[in-house]
Amino acid sequence: MSGKKARDLRRVQEQAERDAVAELTRNEVFAAAERGGVDPPWTPFDRTHYLDDFCREVNCEQTFCNSRYQVYCNPMRLIPGWPPMYYLSFKRHSRGTVIPWRDKQRLKNEICGTLAEAIELYPSEERLMDTSNQYHLFVVHPDCAGFPFGQVNRDILTPSEADGVGARQAPMEAHHNADGCNTHGLVGWKPMEWYENNEPEQVHPALWKVPPGAIHGDEVKP
Question: 19 and 115 share a domain?
Fold first, then answer.
């Protein structure tokens, strides 16, 4: 065997070994989650796709991943009387159903910003979507006023403080705060002036063929 062929074969073998290790590590994480084991340590979200072939395939603008979750992000069409919004569709890597509320808050903070407010929608039965362990947040632009409902003031209690008032509070993980998150996140909000000066169909030209109301996971029909 020539030297070049030997080197090429070795590179293939090394890549196969790396793939096997990665697959083993991923399967170990999945297995631990299925057993109710400890989650992997939280890592910051990184953008993994942006307007590429994968995004076109799954009908989204960009995706983010960390050690626990994969998030699909789409700018929502401008609706008269509504602020600019992003739609986040996310799942655990384990495809499990248990997602702590604090993880969702941290996910929102990292990707869309600490100033942004988000809601989960519990729809009418006529438009119920329940096809997989996929979860959804609808996020308002951080420079807009928040929702006209919800708590007015901030208040956080530790487990011991909650015990002192007869309540029960779950322990917090190290990432259950806004440390390291900025006000506008990673998603790339545009300034409000940009939205005010563009027609709705210009907000995201790459998605102009997507019918109104279609979201990630929907079957889009002509």
Answer: no
